[in-house]
């Protein structure tokens, strides 16, 4: 498609996948369409409130007030995933189980001369009279076979649809995992920088507190020159109020211990977070989509076989 600089509006379809159920929506839009307009549509279509929507395209988060062109959308080779932030909270409920809508196809009515009269029903020859019954039985079995084929086709299409939705959810997990890894690395780096800075300052402050008494004694031992001495000032310590310094040190020591405890709690919480994230990255999906896909494709031969039988009987 042409770029904006050439004066041509980039028009196309935006493919949006719902992460929690695998449903997909295709929107007609252009590069000037605001992300908020897309969110409004998704709110009515999916039931996910706008404030709970998190739209991701690869590692980019789509902001409501920006146009799609800011993310080089719409694009045929890019898809957007909608995550429900309400589902991401630790105490949130799971989505309701998906209901597979299967259209029930009724069996054909049993053959009856009253429903399908035939000219040979009143034939005197028993052999001729039996022919309509044979024809009705054959037609009934053909119709019943057609119903079985249609039921198989409906169920196969339902399985194929669910497989597509599972693939969407698999890709959504990959996108979410990549996004989580990106932000986790940033948080981890900030944590390491904080711990490094804290360790240095903690050691420096500890040294000041531990050496306070020695510093006081040094100030006390530094006598002033006789010409500078007065009745109230004999040493350097006399230039400061020792009681105020002592009170300040006690306050600093208390704050030092409190902050040390807070940092210890923070390290423990971050350790738990780190463990959870690493377990999440190392865990495997509970289902194996490739195996399921192979099974569904393998069962397609039964559908082809039934179709061949119906074509032969036609």
Which class do the helix and strand fractions yield? alpha+beta
Radius of gyration: 39 Å
The topology string of helices and strands comes to EEHEEEHHHH
Ends apart, CA distance between termini: 49 Å
Q: How many strand elements?
A: 5
Q: What number of domains?
A: 3
Largest sheet: 5 strands, mixed
Describe this structure in words.
With 314 residues, the protein is α+β, with helices and mostly antiparallel strands. 55% of the residues lie in helices and 9% in strands. The protein is rod-shaped. Residues 1-7 have low confidence and may be disordered.
Explain briefly what this protein structure is.
The protein is of the alpha+beta class and 314 residues long.
What is the topology?
Layout: E1 11-18, E2 24-30, H1 35-46, E3 53-57, E4 60-61, E5 79-84, H2 126-210, H3 212-221, H4 242-282, H5 289-313
Parallel strand pairs: 1-5
Antiparallel strand pairs: 1-2, 3-4, 3-5
Helix pairs in contact: 2-4, 2-5
Jot down its keywords:
314 residues; alpha+beta; Ubiquitin-like (UB roll); 5-stranded mixed sheet; disordered N terminus; Autophagy protein ATG17-like domain-containing protein; Ubiquitin-like_domsf; ATG11; ATG17-like_dom
């Amino acid at each position: 498609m042409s770029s904006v600089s050439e004066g041509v509006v980039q028009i196309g379809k935006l493919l949006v996948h719902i992460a929690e159920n695998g449903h997909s929506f295709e929107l007609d839009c252009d590069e000037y369409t605001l992300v908020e307009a897309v969110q409004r549509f998704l709110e009515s279509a999916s039931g996910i409130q706008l404030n709970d929507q998190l739209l991701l395209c690869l590692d980019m988060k789509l902001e409501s007030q920006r146009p799609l062109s800011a993310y080089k959308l719409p694009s045929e080779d890019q898809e957007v995933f909608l995550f429900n932030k309400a589902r991401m909270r630790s105490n949130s409920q799971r989505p309701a189980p998906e209901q597979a809508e299967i259209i029930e196809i009724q069996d054909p009515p049993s053959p009856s001369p009253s429903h399908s009269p035939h000219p040979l029903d009143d034939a005197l020859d028993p052999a001729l009279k039996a022919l309509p019954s044979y024809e009705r039985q054959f037609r009934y079995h053909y119709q019943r076979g057609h119903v079985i084929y249609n039921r198989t086709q409906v169920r196969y299409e339902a399985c194929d649809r669910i497989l597509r939705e599972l693939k969407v959810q698999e890709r959504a997990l990959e996108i979410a995992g990549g996004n989580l890894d990106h932000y986790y690395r940033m948080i981890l780096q900030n944590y390491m920088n904080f711990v490094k800075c804290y360790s240095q300052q903690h050691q420096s402050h500890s040294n000041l507190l531990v050496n306070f008494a020695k510093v006081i004694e040094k100030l006390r031992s530094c006598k002033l020159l006789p010409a500078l001495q007065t009745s109230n000032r004999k040493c350097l310590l006399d230039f400061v109020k020792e009681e105020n310094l002592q009170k300040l040190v006690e306050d600093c020591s208390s704050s030092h211990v409190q902050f040390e405890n807070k940092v210890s709690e923070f390290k423990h919480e971050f350790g738990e977070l780190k463990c959870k994230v690493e377990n999440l990255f190392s865990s495997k999906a509970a289902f194996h989509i490739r195996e399921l896909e192979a099974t569904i494709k393998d069962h397609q031969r039964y559908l082809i076989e039934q179709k061949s039988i119906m074509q032969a009987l036609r």
